[in-house]
């Protein structure tokens, strides 16, 4: 059986750091409202560049079929998402008179995957999807606000990283972590 639906593409997963504590320490309605607002902000900033495969709790599984991914374009997108996320947290904290202790991390991966439909749902399938989810659960980052670019993405992107070395940490077995705030 041959699957002609397999294509190369980017997997992007923005995920909230601090989510479990947030859920346990926030009233149900308030927490649901805050999470809905934050996820909507990320989706709006995406501006349909990526397709959405699914939303699970505090994470969005974005994808884009792309044979020539651009590090610069993706990096710019992540900065916009992170800045909009932080602005929304400030806005919600002020309007709800509450402290929202959430930050944002991103996983950026590249590889082959397929897609299938079940009812109204489109599901992604493949090793690339599993690897991206595994990268979410890492003990590699030294602070909660970061982007982890996989080796696969870096090797397939059509331009090299251009950001400051002080905010990057190379991990030969995984890829590169870019911190949004400078490490002290």
Indicate the topology:
Elements: E1 7-17, H1 19-25, H2 28-46, E2 51-56, E3 59-65, H3 71-96, E4 103-118, E5 121-125, H4 127-136, E6 146-150, H5 151-156, E7 168-171, E8 175-179
Parallel strand pairs: 4-6
Antiparallel strand pairs: 1-3, 1-4, 2-3, 4-5, 6-8, 7-8
Helix pairs in contact: 2-3
Into how many domains do the coordinates divide? 1
Poorly predicted ranges: none
Overall geometric form: globular
- For the CA atoms, what is the radius of gyration? 17 Å
CATH class: Alpha Beta
- In angstroms, what separates the terminal alpha carbons? 54 Å
Strand content: 25-35%
Kindly describe this structure.
The chain has 5 helices and 8 strands. By secondary structure, the chain is α+β, with helices and mostly antiparallel strands. The chain has a single domain, classed as Nucleotide cyclase, GGDEF domain (Alpha-Beta Plaits, 2-Layer Sandwich). Strands 1, 2, 3, 4, 5, 6, 7 and 8 form an 8-stranded mixed β-sheet that branches. Strand 2 (51-56) and strand 3 (59-65) form a beta hairpin. Helix 2 runs antiparallel to helix 3 (71-96). The longest helix has 26 residues, at 71-96. The radius of gyration is 17 Å and the shape is globular. The termini are far apart. This is DUF2652 domain-containing protein. It comes from Chryseobacterium ureilyticum. InterPro entries: Uncharacterised_Rv2561 (IPR020503). Pfam families: DUF2652 (PF10851).
């Amino acid at each position: 059986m041959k699957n002609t639906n397999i294509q190369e593409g980017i997997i992007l997963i923005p995920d909230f750091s601090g989510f479990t504590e947030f859920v346990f320490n926030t009233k149900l309605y308030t927490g649901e409202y805050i999470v809905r607002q934050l996820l909507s902000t990320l989706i709006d900033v995406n501006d349909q560049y990526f397709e959405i495969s699914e939303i699970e709790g505090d994470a969005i599984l974005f994808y884009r079929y792309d044979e020539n991914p651009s590090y610069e374009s993706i990096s710019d997108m992540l900065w916009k998402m992170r800045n909009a996320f932080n602005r929304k947290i400030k806005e919600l904290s002020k309007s709800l008179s509450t402290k929202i202790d959430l930050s944002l991390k991103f996983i950026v991966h590249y590889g082959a995957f397929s897609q299938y439909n079940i009812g109204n749902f489109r599901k992604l399938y493949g090793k690339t999807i599993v690897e991206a989810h595994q990268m979410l659960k890492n003990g590699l980052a030294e602070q909660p606000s970061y982007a982890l670019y996989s080796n696969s993405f870096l090797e397939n992107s059509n331009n090299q990283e251009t950001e400051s070395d002080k905010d990057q940490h190379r991990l030969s077995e995984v890829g590169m972590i870019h911190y949004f705030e400078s490490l002290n």
